[in-house]
Amino acid sequence: MLASLLIPQALSLVFAATPVAGVDGPVHALATDAGGVYAAGSFARASGAPAANIARWDGSAWHPLGAGTDGPVYALFIDGGDVYAGGSFANAGGVAAVNVARWDGSAWSAVGGGVTGPAAVVKCFSRDAGGLLIGGVFAQVGASTTANGLARWTGFEWNLLGGNVPGIEHDIRAIAPLGGTIYVGGVLRFPGSTRPSEATLARATPFVLSDHAGSANANGECSGCASVDALAATASDLYAGGAFTTLGQVTVVGSPYGVVRLAGGVTPLGLGEGAMTPSVAQGGVVLALLAENGALFAAGTFVTMRGAPAAFIARWDGGAWSGLGAGVSGTVRCLVARDGWIYAGGDFVTAGGNEVNHIACWDGSAWSPLTTVATPVRRSSWGSLKNRFR
Questions:
Q1: What is the pTM (predicted TM-score) of this model?
Q2: How far apart, in whole angstroms, are the C-alpha atoms of residue 102 and residue 66?
Q3: Is 211 left (phi over 0), alpha (psi -120 to 50) or beta?
Q4: Label partner for 379 (CA 20 to 30 A): which of 143, 292, 311, 389?
Q5: pLDDT in tens, 116-127
């Protein structure tokens, strides 16, 4: 009897796929390079292994970036062989790095003494010819330099952008260089303003942050609380998404929030600084935009896009909006493209009906989780094995 119980169990050593290789908390930022896809956010584990708020997916497994950070990461940017992480943390890999840090492939280091201020947080990165552009909510960069939520790190020193007006606290949520101009989106205030926010889209120079396209007239569901939360630039156009019903003199028709296109890039077309052309309206906040292969992908908190079902993510093909299959089960906060795939990260746990745990990939027709190579487990009977490498 004992032998009859033991023999089947001995034969039942098979390889079966590990649990879905997502992460155990929200993903706020994604980036990619030749080494894979980087995900960052508010999580402690990736596919069951320790990964403090940031990890790299190489196509078959997750890898932590050292000891990670001691607080959430909201922004990622890859510059050459370096990975920059920004958020709300004091240390990265055990090294003091206040709200911004650099990973060189083997170790973490601080960036220019960090960014500080009451409730300071880094929310976005980009790059221009001068260096790394950093945006968020902060009052100081380095040891003692005043900044109003926007600065440039050259690799050696800080350059100020947008001027430094005492008492002004910008909330910079997106940055997009285009045609020699740096555009920033968020919730912005200007000297003398009495409104909680006065503009959502602005142009930055070393000396001033100026309202662009009349966005001081932006409105949301309450007075002065509109925002631009995402920007995407193509060769000629700038797309802005966020929480607004109007931007400048344009009303985004059909629902409370919108995505708009700055036609002709930086060419003045009206309002003195460029005309905003509506491209869509939808019923939720747009938190991420991605221009890829002639299409524009928008993601956020919405469930329809101009009347078309689009659960938290949609695609604009130049003529119409459509959902990406059945979509995902919750808010999408970030997007990135790699090898023809669209990767989405956020608060969701399923995509296309599949368990994915906060990160998923779209191949143009279906959603897939990020799965790992098989590991041996004991099972009471033989079963099929299917591994997918993404």
A1: 0.84
A2: 12
A3: beta
A4: 389
A5: 999 999 999 999
